[in-house]
Amino acid sequence: MLLKQKKQWPLFVMAFLCMTFTNVSAQAKKLKDSTPEQRAKMQTEWMTTKLALNTSQIQQVSALNLQYAQKNEPIIQSNEGKRSKFKKLKALQKEKSNALSQILDAAQYKKYQEIKDQMIQTLKEKRK
Fold this sequence. Notes:
By secondary structure, the protein is an all-alpha fold. The chain has one domain (about 1-125). The protein contains six helices and no strands. The chain starts with a helix and ends with a helix.
């Protein structure tokens, strides 16, 4: 099971941050081939574990993740350039983060931001 989770990690990072690029990498293809519902479910499960969400938060976060996965879908599937996609997805991610700040408590939101920043740093290092 741990091996399976490790294999899904790159996919999750990309889905969680919504920073999909149309390169030929396996992660981008997996993300492009996954449904918004699959991405939202994966994000919710991950957030539930990492942020210790309560029952009410799980329901709210699940709905929010699905809402934004559906908003991201046309962008992910489009033939736009990387930069254009990145800008649009980044704007949606900012909206989603603002909405999450209303659902999570201060400690959970801080942890969410720290993990998100760490993932961004990891992606930047891998691109070098």
